[in-house]
Structures are given as C-alpha cells and as structure tokens.
C-alpha cells in the first residue's frame, strides 16, 4: 500500500497540470478579485466574506469533478486497473490512494488560499478552525464521491472529466460562485440548497467567519457523500 | 499432475456465446497452446482460468483451487500477461517491476528479470516511450515477477517483428526450463508448432482437438510430397511402379512425387538402383494450418 501511494504520488507530480490548475486558478482569482474595491462598503464586505470560501470550494471542485474522475477513468480505460486485478493486490487500493492524494492536494490548496489571502489581503484565517476542518474534509469527501461516481458511470476518461467540468459551471452558479446567492431568485436558491456545492461553500463561509455550520448544510453534504459513494462503489468496474 | 483442469466451460456475453463447451487439462511443466482464429473464444477461456471472469457453467481448477472462490490463493502463483494491458504512461520500467514485485509474497529478483527480457538498458524509460516489442517484454516480465508456478500469456508475440518474436520464443523456453507451466494463447501456427507440447484447437467456442502439434498434423497427413532434382535422366515409371507412390509430376527440372508411407526411403532406394543421385531433396509436409483447415473447414486469419 505504501509502495502504491509512493508510486501514484510520483506519477501525480510528473503530470502536474491538474495540481497546478486546482492550486493556481483559485489562488489567482482570490488575489485578483480580492484586490478589487467595491464602490459600496456593503458589497465590499460581501466580497470579502464570500470570496475565500468560494475559492476553496472551486479548488476542491476542480479536483473532484475533473482531475479525480479523469485519472480513474483513464486507468480503467487503458487497462491499468485490469492488469492489477490479476495480481494478489486489489486495484481498489489504487482508488483509495487516488482519493487520498487528491485530498492532500485539496488540503494543500486550502492552506495556500488561507495563507495567501491573509498575507496579501489581510483576510482573516478561519475563526472556527475545528468546524472549518470538519466542513472542509466532509465537503471534499462528498465532492470526491461525485467524482468517483462520474468515473464509475462514464465509460471513457475524456468524457468523464468533460462531463465533470460541464457539471461544474451550473453547480457553481447555483452555489453562488459568480453572484451572491442572496440576490438569486428563490427557486435557484432552493435548488442550490439541496446540491452539495452550495452547502459546502456556505459551511466554509460560516465557519470562516466564526459561526457554527448550519446542520442542514452538513446533512446535505453527508447524504451526498453516502449516496454518491455507495452508488459509485456499486457500479465501479475494473474494466 | 494436472495443474489446470477446465471442464465444460461455458460463457455467454450479452449477445454472443463466446465459449460454448471447452475442456482441457494442462500438466505440470507443459507449454500448452490455445490456438484458434480471432473470436474463437480463446481469450475468454483463459480469462476464466485466470479468475477474471465467472463462467456461466463448467468448472475450472488451477493448482487444485477454484480461481473465482480462492482468488487470492491463486493469484500468488499465477502470472498473467493480458492482451492489451497497459501501465500509466509515465511510470518507468524499473518502477513498474518494483511496484508489481511488492504485490507478491515471494517475488522474483526483478533486476535479473529485466536482464532476461532484454530491457536492462531501458530501465529508466517511461512506459509511454517504449516500443511495442519492449512493452510486450515488460508485460512478460510483469507476469513473471511474482515467481508464478503457472503463467498465462495471451497473444504474446502479436505485433512483434520476426526477430523480436524469435527472441520472445527463446525467453518462453527458458521460463519453461525453470519449471513454470505455461498456457499460451496464439493464432500463429508457427509459434504454436515451435513452442507447444500440446495444443487445444478452438473454433466457435468449442474444442476441436487436443493433441501435440505433430499429432494434429498426422491426423491430416494422408499424403506427403517429395521434391528433388535428378542428377541424370530418369524415367517416371521407375518411381510410379513403387507401391508408396501415388503420383509423379515434373516442374521445370524438378520431380515432384506424392505418396504415402515411408516415401523418402522408397524413392531413395529406387533412385540408387537407377544410379541417379537426387539433389536438393525436400519433403513437403502438412502444417498446422492444414490440420486446422481439415478439422474446422476454416483457415486461421492472421
């Protein structure tokens, strides 16, 4: 297992595009947009409280919706998993290792965003660290479960990461990535409430600024994790 | 002792009966060939033996174990080289061997294996940069890295140039000499004839015959032909009267004699009696192709 972990990490670093996109895109947006001063002080505050959580969500989403399903579907498509299934070691370990590596990268992205936001724009570090970490890990796991589901249901790698990125945009939209959810029509907000991304962003935002997360958000996240995870495990094939 | 026993194996995919009824046994230390045209059910058969697929009916036993029920026990002793199995593009040759060696309790020395498959100089190359032949040899090395007692090799020389093919055959013979039982899936007649102790001819999901290559050929070899160039004038009648001879024809300066029994001896004696010396004498024998054609009514497509 440690050998697989070491090997997959090496391979991940040899193809750093995914790593860079998930780290640099949210970081660039945070630093860029964070520097804009809004004319209205109220908007300014919304921006400041909203932005760091959303960028963290974006990083995790990129990993979960495109990088993870892309890698796993490619491994299955090219026969890497099938080859491994002829050995005494189950290819399930590759799955676990991939989840683990992407989780580490997600944590890394989160840390970079917190530190950079704090140093460059003076954005506070999360005020409820315990709740924040819980929301972050639970939310990442649930977005990764969706990625796993994509890899399980979509037969080819390009399609899997393609569908992942296509899914990302409406999800980001209803989750208030592009406009504050407060300004959205009621029905869009309702939809967003029951998809995992908005509750994830909201939980990060709440805990960042010192509140406890809304239990409803944590429940939606956990339900997604359990359902998507179970369906993915049920339908994932080595070949 | 039989290492592999397959009995009345049957496997259907959604719309196609891939294996209708296949039975054979493989003895310890044998090189056993599974030969047949594309789509005959060869790969499905060995995938069931390897425990990668569950048969719809019939039984499979490898080293006395059921490959589905006792997957772990089997895999420790069974090396599999799959047709078209690959590795991540950026994994290096040595890393792949090192990784796969770590999957087994008692792995082979992969450094030595690397030498044996002739990839020592490509040790640090990425899998994506290997040629077809090099990938194939790495694939063989990976099938052997667990020190298996049985190795299943599927279409191992497909896509290789003739020299690489012969090198691979030599490698297979070395592996067998080390005591490994080998199941070889192939549609190359030459490969089957050169390597296999016994063969199962498979067509349309059924076993047509199981025999040694020579045994299969002798089933169809009712007639043989001998071709030679006589040193002096020779009357065809001198050969035609021999009981073994069924026909004499001439092609250019060559005499072509067909017949049965010990044709070569009969011709040699007749020529000696007439003080004619044959030069460039060649016996043209039936091949596995002919055997396959006679047994199935089909030619194997390559």
How would you portray this structure in words?
The complex is a heterodimer of chains A (239) and B (302). With 239 residues, chain A is mostly helical. Chain A has one domain. Chain A has helices at residues 2-14, 17-34, 41-78, 80-84, 92-121, 129-153, 157-174, 186-194, 197-208, 215-235. Chain B has 302 residues and is of the alpha/beta class. Chain B folds into two domains: 2-218, Rossmann fold (3-Layer(aba) Sandwich), CATH 3.40.50; 222-284, Alpha-Beta Plaits. Helices cover 32% and strands 29% of the residues of chain B. In chain B, a hairpin with a 2-residue loop joins strand 8 and strand 9 (206-211). The radius of gyration of chain B is 24 Å and the shape is elongated. The two termini of chain B are 34 Å apart. The relative contact order of chain B is 0.14. Chains A and B meet through helix 1 and helix 4 of A and helix 3 of B.
Question: Helix/strand/pairing class of chain B, anyone?
Answer: alpha/beta
**Structure summary, number of beta strands of chain A:** 0
Number of helices of chain B: 11
N- to C-terminal separation of chain A? 21 Å
**Oligomer classification:** heterodimer
The count of β-strands of chain B is: 13
Strand order of the largest sheet of chain B: 5-6-7-3-8-9
Biggest protein-protein interface?
Answer: A-B, 19 and 25 residues
As a percent range, the share of strand residues of chain B is: 25-35%
Question: Rg of chain B from C-alpha positions?
Answer: 24 Å
The radius of gyration over CA of chain A amounts to: 18 Å
**Through-space gap between termini of chain B:** 34 Å
- Which structural class best describes the helix and strand composition of chain A? mainly alpha
Work out the count of structural domains of chain B: 2
Write the layout of secondary structure elements.
The complex is a heterodimer of chains A (239) and B (302).
Chain A: H1 2-14, H2 17-34, H3 41-78, H4 80-84, H5 92-121, H6 129-153, H7 157-174, H8 186-194, H9 197-208, H10 215-235
Helix pairs in contact in A: 1-5, 2-3, 2-5, 3-5, 3-6, 3-7, 3-9, 5-6, 6-7, 6-9, 6-10, 9-10
Chain B: E1 2-13, E2 16-27, E3 31-35, H1 42-49, E4 57-62, H2 71-75, E5 78-81, H3 93-101, H4 110-116, H5 132-144, E6 150-154, H6 162-177, E7 181-186, H7 189-195, E8 198-203, E9 206-211, H8 213-220, E10 224-230, H9 236-240, E11 245-251, E12 254-259, H10 263-273, E13 278-284, H11 288-296
Parallel strand pairs in B: 3-7, 3-8, 5-6, 6-7
Antiparallel strand pairs in B: 1-2, 1-4, 8-9, 10-12, 10-13, 11-12
Helix pairs in contact in B: 8-11
């Amino acid at each position: 297992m440690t050998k697989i972990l070491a090997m997959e990490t090496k391979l991940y670093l040899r193809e750093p595009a995914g790593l860079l996109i998930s780290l640099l895109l949210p970081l660039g947006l945070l630093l860029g947009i964070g520097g804009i001063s809004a004319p209205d002080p109220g908007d300014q505050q919304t921006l400041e409280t909203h932005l760091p959580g959303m960028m963290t969500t974006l990083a995790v989403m990129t990993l979960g919706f495109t990088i993870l399903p892309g890698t796993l579907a490619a491994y299955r498509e090219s026969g890497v998993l099938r080859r491994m299934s002829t050995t005494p070691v189950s290819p399930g370990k590759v799955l676990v290792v991939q989840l683990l590596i992407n989780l580490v990268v997600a944590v890394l992205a989160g840390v970079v965003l917190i530190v950079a936001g704090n140093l460059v724009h003076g954005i506070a570090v999360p005020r409820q660290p315990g709740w924040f970490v819980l929301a972050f890990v639970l939310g990442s796991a649930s977005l990764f479960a969706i990625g796993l589901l994509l890899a399980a249901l979509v037969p080819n790698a390009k399609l899997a990461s393609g569908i992942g990125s296509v899914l990302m945009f409406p999800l980001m939209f209803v989750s208030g990535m592009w406009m504050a959810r407060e300004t959205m029509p009621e029905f869009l907000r309702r939809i967003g409430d029951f998809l995992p991304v908005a509750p994830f962003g909201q939980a990060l935002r709440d805990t960042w600024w010192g509140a406890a997360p809304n239990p409803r958000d944590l429940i939606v996240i956990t339900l997604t994790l359990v359902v998507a995870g179970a369906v993915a495990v049920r339908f994932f094939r080595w070949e | 002792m039989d290492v592999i026993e397959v009995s009345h194996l049957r496997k259907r995919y959604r719309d196609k009966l891939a294996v209708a009824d296949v039975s054979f046994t493989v003895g310890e230390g044998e090189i056993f060939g599974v030969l047949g045209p594309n789509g005959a059910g060869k790969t499905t058969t060995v995938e069931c033996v390897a425990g990668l697929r569950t048969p719809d009916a019939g039984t499979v036993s490898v080293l006395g174990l059921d490959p589905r029920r006792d997957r772990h026990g089997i895999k420790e002793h069974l090396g599999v080289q799959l047709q078209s199995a690959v590795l991540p593009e950026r994994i290096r040759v040595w890393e792949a061997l090192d990784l796969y060696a770590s999957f087994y309790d008692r792995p082979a020395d992969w450094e030595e294996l690397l030498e044996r498959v002739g990839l020592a100089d490509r040790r640090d190359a990425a899998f994506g940069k290997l040629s077809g032949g090099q990938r194939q040899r790495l694939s063989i090395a990976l099938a052997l890295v667990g020190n298996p007692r049985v190795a299943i090799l599927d279409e191992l020389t497909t896509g290789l140039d003739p020299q690489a093919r012969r090198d691979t055959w030599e490698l297979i013979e070395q592996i067998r000499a080390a005591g490994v039982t080998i199941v070889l899936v192939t549609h190359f007649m030459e490969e089957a004839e050169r390597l296999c102790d016994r063969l199962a001819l498979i067509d349309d999901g059924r076993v047509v015959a199981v025999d040694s290559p020579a045994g299969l050929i002798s089933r169809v070899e009712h007639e043989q032909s001998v071709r030679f160039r006589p040193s002096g004038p020779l009357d065809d009648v001198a050969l035609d009267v021999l009981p073994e001879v069924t026909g004499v024809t001439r092609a250019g300066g060559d005499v072509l004699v067909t017949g049965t029994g010990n044709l070569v001896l009969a011709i040699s004696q007749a020529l000696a009696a007439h003080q004619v010396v044959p030069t460039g004498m060649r016996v043209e024998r039936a091949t596995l192709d002919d055997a396959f054609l006679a047994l199935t009514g089909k030619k194997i497509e390559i």
